[in-house]
Write a structure and sequence with these properties.
With 246 residues, the chain is an alpha/beta fold. It has a single domain, classed as Spore Coat Polysaccharide Biosynthesis Protein SpsA, Chain A (Alpha-Beta Complex), CATH 3.90.550. Helix content is 24%, strand content 18%. It contains 6 helices and 9 strands, in the order βαβαβαβαββββααβ. The termini are close together.
């Protein structure tokens, strides 16, 4: 979710979704994606896209997110979510991406989850995410801190180190998945990452996406990206008060 200003320029191919606005059939409140991974979805005044993201996630994965975080929306988001069986974290004001995300990540880590899949309201799902495959990969590769799961134009350089992005060879995983390690930076995109780094990430300064990137680099961990991707990315410009702050 871009923290830039204006509301409805959508720069992504349409994702096929059901014509109805109804919530998908959801599992009991707080169902874990697996016993090890928590799924966090953050939103702010983005009800239309949130419906699409939650609907497609439920359709492909047959489960619900662990936490849905509403950072002070005034567009009816909380009311719509209330009857859906979601574990809602509701903030009365917009905390910004960093603080609202970290709050949910800390809750997931405290609840004993080992991994966290970070989503926002403009990341519709395009295929089922292979949670167990990714968990196995992270278990076997302690040098990797996160796995990127979305399609998005990538920068040519690491935003923190300014080094050219260099990708390793594609590694075959089970069930036809592939993964590539590379020196990309962490961000608030659809990343599945280790919950045990949350306390360290919380120390980032400034408390912005760039601060998160810098803090992650201090860990000395690499990144990886899954092929094919499981999520699309809708670039949504925003405006208004208080604004979707980094």
């Amino acid at each position: 979710m871009r923290a830039v200003a204006s509301r409805a320029s959508i720069a992504a191919a349409p994702i096929p979704v059901a014509a109805t606005d109804a919530l998908p059939t959801v599992a009991p409140r707080g169902l874990r994606a697996t016993a090890r991974t928590a799924v966090v979805v953050l939103t702010w005044n983005d009800l239309a896209l949130l419906k699409q993201t939650l609907r497609t996630f439920g359709q492909f994965n047959r489960r619900t997110p662990t936490y849905v975080v509403d950072s002070g929306s005034i567009d009816g988001t909380a009311k719509w979510l209330a009857g859906g069986g979601y574990r809602l974290i509701r903030h009365p004001i917009n905390l910004g991406i960093f603080r609202a995300s970290l709050d949910a990540w800390e809750r997931a880590a405290s609840a004993g989850y080992e991994f966290i899949l970070n989503l926002q309201s403009d990341f519709p799902c395009t295929r089922a995410a292979p949670f167990e495959v990714l968990e196995e990969y992270l278990d076997a590769n302690p040098q990797v801190g996160f796995i990127r799961l979305n399609r998005w134009r990538e920068m040519r350089r690491n935003c923190v180190t300014h080094e050219p992005i260099v990708a390793g060879p594609a590694e075959a995983l089970r069930d036809g998945w592939r993964i590539v390690q590379y020196n990309y930076h962490m961000s608030f995109h659809p990343y599945l990452f280790r919950a045990n780094i949350v306390a360290f990430l919380k120390q980032a300064w400034p408390r912005t996406e760039r601060g998160l990137m810098r803090q992650y680099e201090k860990l000395g961990l690499r990144g990886a990206k899954l092929q094919p991707a499981c999520f699309s990315t809708i670039e949504c410009n925003r405006h208004g008060t208080p604004g979707w702050r980094h």
